[in-house]
């Protein structure tokens, strides 16, 4: 892991732009950490237990992408932590003050670093100074060399290696206040809209370089976590990941398919709590020196270019459904 050096200073061409550069961590609670560890290990991540906390790592990368804690009831998004460069922190804090974004106390599961503010839907968001975990370049698909003539390119099923995602790509959240959420991320934190379909779904990227989206919001009846998306090497790994999770007993999901917005190939695996983890490859990338022109797309292009039929409950927000039951 030591060979990956995360960037700690902004590029000069973005000196005038003061924005968070990465989604530093997601934090949510689940009723059973042992079950969570089994799921994410089967998925190909490296879950590490620290007391009552489960941290999620990817193979070969030093950054902890998120943490899970145990709590009775349904899975629930607790807070998000965004990171910025040291030279941007004061400007972001001043802008948050000017925008009138409410401050809040540190979350009981968090720490007192940086500053804490309230998202428009009431959950805490932390902003800290930390190295840039979002990539500076798009992940290149790994193309296997062609085998000698007379030899098949695919390995036998018994010899297929386990898929291990390389990093977190993005998260998608449910939102009952999509316009307000976009305003918060854009005007307070400095993210930018990449693409959208009205207020049905909005994708946002970081101006210092990120995948097509660091975060996305889908219209719902309340806040919640829909999915975590994990970058893999190629579409073969997307398919192999699907088989890997089938073998582990996780047969509910959606894919293999390809999105229009973001362009990535995908397979979603439903987790034990009604949300999803996504194997994703070959996503569009927004370089740190490029200003992507946001486009409002028709609804038929907001979801996918091709793939199997979408499960009926794919966009059900079980965090809210449980509260209203």
Automatic annotation (TrEMBL):
Residue segments, region Disordered: 134-159
Entry keyword Metal-binding: yes
Domain (VOC) ranges: 22-130, 167-282
GO biological process: L-methylmalonyl-CoA metabolic process
Membrane-spanning ranges: none
UniProt entry keywords in alphabetical sequence: Metal-binding
GO molecular function, a single term: methylmalonyl-CoA epimerase activity
PANTHER family: METHYLMALONYL-COA EPIMERASE, METHYLMALONYL-COA EPIMERASE, MITOCHONDRIAL
Protein name as catalogued: Metapyrocatechase
